[in-house]
Design goal:
By secondary structure, this protein is mainly alpha-helical. It has a single domain (3-125), classed as Four Helix Bundle (Hemerythrin (Met), subunit A) (Up-down Bundle). Helices cover 72% and strands 0% of the residues. It has 5 helices and no strands. It has helices at residues 3-6, 25-37, 42-70, 75-98, 105-125. The N and C termini lie far apart (38 Å).
Length: 126
Amino acid sequence: MNYAALQTPSSPVPGAHILNEDLSMTSVANALLACHARGADGSTMLTMCERLLSVTERELLERERRMMADGDPELANHVRRHGDVLLILSRQVRDSRRSAAPISNTFIRYVGSMIERMRAANAEAA
């Protein structure tokens, strides 16, 4: 695995990499895009896709729990949209495991749009 591609600028320890447990969807998605831009190998990209799926699943579930606790009337809509995101990410993981083909530009654009949507949502919340 190409760990140099996985290092983050804010890593406190030299050699620390993106597989740390405390990262957000945004940081993992950005790291995945950076790995892709650097031409990371298939194994690294698979690891990044798996990590993005795992972190996204955890974050979206936590959001849904908060929405449920708050009685948010938009919960059902969010659950559907979250399911769509997880489906796309899980399909990419499945496809990456099955084939050595590079990740499609369509998926990379999707991850980029995910980041933009998260930034927009954070700006609205602020």
